[in-house]
Design brief:
Elements lengths: L1 H61 L6 H15 L4 H22 L3 H5 L1 H36 L3 H7 L12 H5 L7
Length: 188
């Protein structure tokens, strides 16, 4: 009888340790998911700021750039698509298009010396540049969190727990190849 009690005690302790390990892995996955969500929220804040700045920048430039309707339309369309993105992959694609449209806009601005000297435009341009930098830092932080989360959901034994509780791979917020090659020139 004593040997059976010891065996049951060992089995019970083993079961408790196993359950604690599952709880620990589950909690780590939740923590990483929440950190990735928080990192995305930081990107979202900066993207909204960027989206809010663009109409002011365009309006300031319109008075000077009367023959650039197509440029303004492309920026407006790209901004609209970026604001309507539903997930990280769509947001990345739309933001890359918006970055391209802004890059072309900044190149066209070079042909308008009066606009380049306008204080309102310079202030908006500086704010946009600052926002672009904040987006880059937030994107890096988000991608770091996604990497940690994805590693945890794909590595043994946490991948078993992740599969059981519906933790799925997250997409990184990547910039497109064209955006990597074409750095927007925003200096005046």
């Amino acid at each position: 009888m004593g040997a059976i009690a010891v065996l049951l005690l060992i089995v019970l302790i083993g079961l408790i340790l196993f359950l604690l390990a599952i709880i620990g892995i589950y909690n780590a996955l939740v923590q990483l998911r929440n950190q990735a969500d928080n990192a995305w929220s930081q990107i979202d804040v900066q993207l909204k700021r960027r989206h809010d700045l663009i109409p002011n920048l365009v309006e300031t430039a319109k008075g000077y750039m009367k023959h650039e309707r197509e440029t303004f339309e492309k920026i407006t369309e790209a901004r609209s698509q970026a604001m309507g993105a539903k997930n990280v992959a769509d947001a990345a694609k739309a933001e890359n298009a918006l970055t391209g449209a802004l890059s072309k806009f900044m190149l066209v601005v070079e042909n308008y010396p009066d606009l380049k000297a306008n204080q309102n435009f310079l202030a908006l341009q500086e704010t946009l540049t600052s926002t672009e930098n904040k987006i880059a830092f937030a994107r890096q932080a988000y991608n770091d969190q996604v990497l940690l989360y994805n590693n945890k959901t794909q590595m043994f034994p946490s991948n078993i727990i992740a599969g059981m509780f519906g933790f799925r791979k997250r997409d990184s917020f990547e910039i497109g190849e064209a955006a990597q090659r074409e750095t927007p020139k925003v200096s005046f």
